[in-house]
Amino acid sequence: MKMTLKSAAREIATAQDKLSRARQLVELMFMAGESLPTKQGSAMTNACDLVDGIFDDVRADLDKLRARISKAEDQQ
Question: What's the pTM value of the predicted model, to 2 decimals?
């Protein structure tokens, strides 16, 4: 299946939306981790911090792709 630039841009927008919703879940988990006893809470908040860093990386990659698509659309 050949993907057009517009459909690729829509796919990126959908992925960014899903990423935002997942990030909200991780933020809730982080808050829950802060209310747990020290050892368990610390492990949970550390894991949430790691996942949050991954979200930042993925969002940056999606932003780069979106910019490349926009540039390609401008060149058409």
Answer: 0.73
- Can you give the length of the chain in residues? 76
The tens digit of pLDDT for each residue in 18-56 reads 999 998 998 888 888 888 888 888 888 888 889 989 999
How would you write the chain as a 3-class SS string?
CCCCHHHHHHHHHHHHHHHHHHHHHHHHHHHHHHCCCHHHHHHHHHHHHHHHHHHHHHHHHHHHHHHHHHHHHHHC
Tell me which residue of 27, 9, 6 sits closest to 17, measured CA to CA.
Answer: 9
Q: What span, in angstroms and rounded, lies between the C-alpha atoms of 25 and 30?
A: 9
